[in-house]
Amino acid sequence: MRAAVLPMKGRVRDSSGRASYDEIIGGVAPPDGVAYEADTVGGVSGWWCRPATARRTEAILYLHGGWYIMGTAKAYRHLAGHIAASAGASAFIPDYRLAPEHPFPSAIQDAEAVYRDLLKNRGIERIALVGDSAGGGLALALLARADHPVGAVALSPVTDLTLSGESWKSRADAEFFFTKPQAESLVAAYVRSNEARDPLASPLYGDLAGLPPVQIIVGDAETLLDDSVRYAERASAAGVEVRLDIWEGMPHGFLTSVRQLRAADEALTLVGAFLAEHF
Q: Would you please indicate which residues are annotated as catalytic (active-site) residues?
């Protein structure tokens, strides 16, 4: 896999990669017994993933990855559908506004609008926040602002847009996809003149005391490894119930290889168990 993606490592630095990104994410093996439905929640369009056995008063708000400039709800529906089925709860994936057309804080504003509408108008009583990569960062940022979520699952989250983690150096060769210069271009398109240390952009720098339980899953072969490790350390020091799983040899976004990699299947089971427990 590393050999296959090496020619593209670090090359996508703007929104020109949107179509190819959706093609890759959309290739996730579909789950069994999950129906999909387009909808608009909180003024934001998106897709529902509804397992046949979903509990009516519980929902997952799934925030997709793509470095804040790529990704669509439709492309992510199979990955989110697997998580929904594993947890026994329907998941809604919003098409939050993307940079550079809509820079920070548009994405987090859309995520919050969806969350509040789910609680107020949709008969949902308990919501879990889940996201991958940039979406994982959005989930953790929203966790500190939302009204009583049951918890959050962050898959290889982006928590520090200052890109100060040591793993940007220590995992530079092991990393399958990203380079620091590439990340700097992507971050600049998102935060522009806004402060990268703003907790709504970089949840690592927020006040983490009093947050509900958090599960973080990350691969060891990631330049974003320290974004997970440092967030988990800060959350734990603040008294948060946090579980951090580091998967040896796994690349960024390895859960998209569900039904192809045993590690992806096992990690998915852990996510479902965590969500079901805290629901």
A: 133, 222, 252
- Report the alpha-carbon distance of residue 58 to residue 277 in Å, rounded: 12
Q: What is the pLDDT of residue 192?
A: 81
**All structural domains of the chain:** 2-278 (3.40.50.1820)
pLDDT of residue 204: 98
| Contact in structure between 84 and 272 (CB atoms under 8 Å) | no
The type of residue at 100 is P
Are 76 and 264 in contact by the 8 Å Cβ rule? The answer is: no
SS (H, E, C) the chain: CHHHHHHHCCCCCCHHHHHHHHHHHCCCCCCCCEEEEEEEECCEEEEEEEECCCCCCEEEEEECCCCCCCCCHHHHHHHHHHHHHHHCCEEEEECCCCCCCCCCCHHHHHHHHHHHHHHHHCCCCEEEEEEECHHHHHHHHHHCCCCCCCEEEEECCCCCCCCCCCHHHHCCCCCCCCCHHHHHHHHHHHHCCCCCCCCCCCHHHCCCCCCCCEEEEEECCCCCHHHHHHHHHHHHHCCCCEEEEEECCCCCCHHHHCCCCHHHHHHHHHHHHHHHHHC
Q: In terms of Cα–Cα distance, which of 107, 103, 102, 106 is closest to 133?
A: 107
Residue 24: per-residue pLDDT: 93
Determine the Cα–Cα distance for residues 239 and 18; give it in Å rounded to an integer.
Answer: 39
Note the pLDDT of residue 210. Answer: 97
Examine the pLDDT at 1 and tell me if it is beyond 90.
no
